[in-house]
Amino acid sequence: MRPALRLAGASLAYGNRTLWSGLDLEIAPGEFVAVLGANGAGKSSLLKVVLGQQRLAAGTVEVAGRPVRRGDRRIGYVPQQKGLEPTTPLRARDFVRLGLDGHRWGPLLPSRRARAQVDRVLDAVGALDYADAPVGRLSGGEQQRLRVAQSIVGDPALLLADEPLLSLDLHHASAVSALVDECRTRTGAAVLFVTHDVNPVLPYADRVLYLANGRFRVGPPEQVMTSATLSDLYGSPVEVLRSNGRLLVAGGAAPSEHPHAHEHEEAS
Ligand SMILES: Nc1ncnc2c1ncn2[C@@H]1O[C@H](COP(=O)(O)OP(=O)(O)OP(=O)(O)O)[C@@H](O)[C@H]1O
Question: Could you report the per-residue pLDDT of 87-97, keeping only the tens digit for each?
Fold first, then answer.
């Protein structure tokens, strides 16, 4: 089967600083890959490469067998969270609808089918109660649920989610993770899901891509999320603790020039 996403010998650099290199990754349709790593490891940049917004320094990247290009309608994207302007002149449901026909100019076309699709995802993220509210007045967590709804409403073949659980309470973090899982099961979408906390996606992640120190490990969570693997990756002691089925990563202070890398922790 043709991979939904294929990176081969991929390297990413800004100027003379290489974020990661030698990345070979094939994601099958329907596969769920969680992307983890310290601040600044290059997780968001990886998504930008797949979106065609950032060029590789070396190697190739293909989405469903074709070179990446900007504005690929087969890709759904949840950008890293930014608050929407309070005066944004859109209702929540119109904001979600942009995921279906936001690429077209002009007023939204009346369509019973589009309305039903929007209602279905609003319901799935628990946003029906505020479907007609102005989007800019909603809380960070409410807006975040709408971003997720917008990214999946068009049934993408590849879903890229950049910290979609940020601002969500435990209940909604679980619900959004389950929703993404349900979406990939129903539509066969492949998922690349950036998160700082692996726990909400542990039930669904087929593999983890862990980026640190310009290197990476990729494999099933039980292989990657171990003290031995992460200590080796970071080059310093990292302890992965297990408690009640949850993982807690302690340590991971990367010998990096970026002080915020030391804040890395998957505890929640
Ligand atoms: N366009 C750019 N030009 C130069 N440097 C950049 C650019 N975009 C990102 N960087 C730098 O590259 C590094 C990786 O950024 P990126 O946002 O991909 O990291 P991340 O792993 O997603 O981090 P976080 O967990 O903090 O969101 C950072 O140090 C960032 O400052």
Answer: 888 999 999 99
**Measured distance CA(14)–CA(73) in Å, rounded:** 27
Backbone angles phi, psi at 90, to 5 degrees: -135, 140
Our answer on whether the CB atom of 252 is closer than 6 Å to any ligand 1 atom is no
Query: What does the alpha-carbon distance between residue 174 and residue 178 come to, in Å, rounded to a whole number?
Result: 6
Question: What is the 99 CA–ligand 1 centroid distance (Å)?
Answer: 26
pTM comes to 0.89
> How many angstroms does the Cα of residue 190 sit away from the middle of ligand 1?
24
In order, the DSSP letters of 154-198 are T--SEEEEESTTTT--HHHHHHHHHHHHHHHHHH--EEEEE-S--
The answer to whether 23 and 59 have CB atoms below 8 angstroms apart is: yes
CB of 18 sitting under 6 A from ligand 1:
no
Cβ contacts of residue 251 below 8 Å, gap of 6+?
231, 234, 236, 237, 238, 239
Tell me which residue has its CA closest to atom 28 in ligand 1: 40
Please indicate, yes or no, if residue 80 is contained in any of the structural domains: no
Smallest CA separation from ligand 1 atom 2, residue: 14
Query: Residue 95 is part of which domain span?
Result: 85-153
Please write the tens of the pLDDT for every residue from 208-231: 999 998 899 999 999 999 999 999
Residues 125 and 145 in one domain: yes
